[in-house]
Amino acid sequence: MLRKLWLTFAQTATICVAALFIVSTFRPEWLPLRSGPGQLDLSSGVAIREAPALPGVPGAAPGSYADAAKRAMPAVVNIFTSKAVSVSRNPFGDDPVFKHFFGDRFGTEKQQVSSLGSGVIVSAEGYILTNQHVVDSADEIEVALSDGRKAVAKLVGSDPETDLAVLKINLPNLAFITFARIEQARVGDPALAIGNPFGVGQTVTQGIISALGRNHLGINIFENFIQTDAAINPGNSGGALVDASGNLLGINTAIYSRSGGSMGIGFAIPVSTGKQVLESIIKTGSVTRGYIGVEPQDITAEAAAALKLSRSSGTLVTGVMRGGPAERAGMQPGDIITDIGEQTVPDTSTMLNLIAQLPPGAPAKIKVLRGAKPLELAVVVGKRPKAQPRAAQKR
Question: Could you give the angle at the alpha carbon of 230 between the alpha carbons of 224 and 233, nearest 5°?
Answer without folding.
Answer: 90
